[in-house]
Amino acid sequence: MAKLDYDKIFIKEACPTSIGGQAIMEGVMMQGPDRTAIAMRLPSGELYLRTKKKAPQTKVMKIPFVRGSVAFARSLVSGMGTLMESADILEEYSPEYAEEPGRFEKWVNSKFGAKAAWNILMTAAVIFAVVISIVFFVILPTWLTNFLGKWVSNAIILNLFEGILRIAMFIGYVAAIRKMEDIKTLFRYHGAEHKTIHCFENDRVLCPENAAKFPTLHPRCGTSFMVFVLIISLLLFSFLGWPNLALRIASRILLIPVIAGISYELLKWAGRSNSAIVRVLSWPGLMLQKLTTAEPTMEQLEVAILSLKAVNVDPGVPEIDGFVDKDGNIVRSSAEEEQVSREMEEWAAEVEAHSEQNAKAAKEALAQKDTTIFEEPDVPATEEDIQEAIKFLEDLDNNEYTIVKPEENDGRTIARQIADIETQAAKARTMARRYTKDIKTYENALAWGQAALGMLANGKNEARMIMSYATGLSRTELITRARELMQDDDFAEYEKRIYARIEGMPLQYIVGLQEFMGLPFRVNPSVLIPRMDTEVLAEEVLKIIDRKNLQHPEILDLCTGSGAIGVSIAAKVPGAVITMTDVSEEALHTAIGNAGLNGVNRRCIFLLGDMFDAIPEDKTYDIIVCNPPYIESDVIETLDVEVKDHEPRLALDGGRDGLDYYRIIADNASMHLRSGGTLALEIGADQASSVKRLLTKAKTYEGLRVVRDLAHLDRVITAERV
Q1: H or E segment to which residue 476 belongs
Q2: What's the pLDDT tens digit per position in 200-215?
Q3: Beta bridge partners of residue 31, listed in sequence order
Q4: How far apart are CA 427 and CA 417, in angstroms?
Q5: How far apart are CA 205 and CA 212, in angstroms?
Q6: Which residues have C-beta within 8 Å of that of residue 241, sequence separation ≥ 6?
Q7: What are phi and psi of 668, to 5 degrees?
Q8: 122-156 burial string, b = 16+ CB within 10 Å, else e?
Q9: Which of 85, 385, 592, 595 is placed for a possible disulfide with 601 were both Cys, Cβ 3.0 to 4.6 Å?
């Protein structure tokens, strides 16, 4: 068994995506969530990009196993279409690839028009490919195995031999075409596609240098899909007996959708998992990928990166069709290219019409600068033409272009050389200045921030989060736009927040957001940052609601702060009505905003006041929940800088012994709890016995329970109203 470095292929830190690709003629096609992109490097060295929006996904693509056969058929059609499209682009912009249309193509064009002709030819190509594949990889192995039946009668052995023969023929076919020069280039682009997707899934800046470090093998490759198809067909057919030749061929063809469906699910699983079973199942496909991929050049990686960037854009971004720079910025659209070509041909023809007199005049004008101009054909020219030519030739002294004798280059006349130089200059002027070593590129600014926060355990990710907040760019956009220049105000905002983090300001206050119970909450220095420990309290309340089967519970959330507990319960229990109170007006405004952010504000009531002072005397609830301040006053100064210097002391200080608020709750909560109602409190890890003693002393509670957190520390106390 050939050795594979699985740790480089199934990378633990990778974040699998739905992005897929395909190598095409001189380029790569990538497919993203809402569009596809064809990126190519033409023989001229220019980059060409064409993007198209995809049709909405149909419901059938959500049905396991069925979606596999649909995806197989679609990929066959789209794969052939993309290859033909790339060939057409090459023919259009590279004369050496252009071929005279055949008789059939000319006849279809004349009868049905260019668009219909394309559809007809593509349909014919797909049908031809399907027929050839069925003949060579279905019918032929079955027919050849038929001869073995003279000596072997065991159906399982015959089916296994047929399957092995089919796999051998497929591998032989791939090995044979690999020797063709065009296929070698295609396989290099296939390797570039895999390296680029690996680079993106591993959260690395998308540049050729980073992508080159990854392997050319990828577990979600279409090659692996084909191997799954071959292996599953081998196993499945082994249990179908050995009927006559016609029935065998028919069964093989009819079961193709079933086999494709199973293979598709296996491939999706392989792309998400790193288990030992997946590694074993993926081994044959990865080995075959060694034949269908090759190490790409840096230029080929650049093309694959361009294609991937083009599908990672907002849905509203318009489609692109034309020549681009390496960042995907339009240099010339296809329509502009046609217009430029026509204008340059006309301009070149006019320049070539300059007479011998024009050439002599140019020589005399430039004699003092020791510049030699060689003669042009004898054609008429005006005085304005002569002066324009002289001015242009003088300007050549100030740039890097040179004029050489026609016999020393490719036979172009000097006038034609001038025309080509002007075209190059025009292209150069349109290229955006996007790449730089300046620190204010997203890539370098991020690296600076990560170095500045290097003393923090999670500094790398925190710098990325701060960058996203300061620029408004998503994680994907920070990768795909890494080498673009930042706006000055974005960089200033980013720099300010990095320094704030160095000085101890909590990350949550810097980015203004914290997740709690899977929901987003805006936070600021007027509220305590919601912590995972407090999720134990919220989850316990949800269990109580479920256990008591409360369809429309009324709940009081005291000391609500950001509203994390109350809003989370409202979001998880659609019939709940939550009253949230806080003594801080700023905190209450934050809670109101978070209720709106999570779409529960219509079932939330917000009251300003100190503990129970905010509640009407006769109002009662099914549940009262509270995460009160419970840290001892003298202990606060010993806490981390992030807590003691930045979080509101009002939300931390529980008095001399940390129990001030528990005393208030023990004395007053029962007046606002319905009979059988529940009180749920978060407590410090060493406060369980003290809080239980206070509640027991009140003589209005029963069934006291202590709930521990994931660290097995006391975290929550619940009690029921007698």
Answers
A1: helix 475-480
A2: 888 788 888 888 988 8
A3: 20, 36
A4: 15
A5: 12
A6: 155
A7: -120, -20
A8: beeebeeeeeeeeeebbeebbeebeeeeeeeeebe
A9: 595
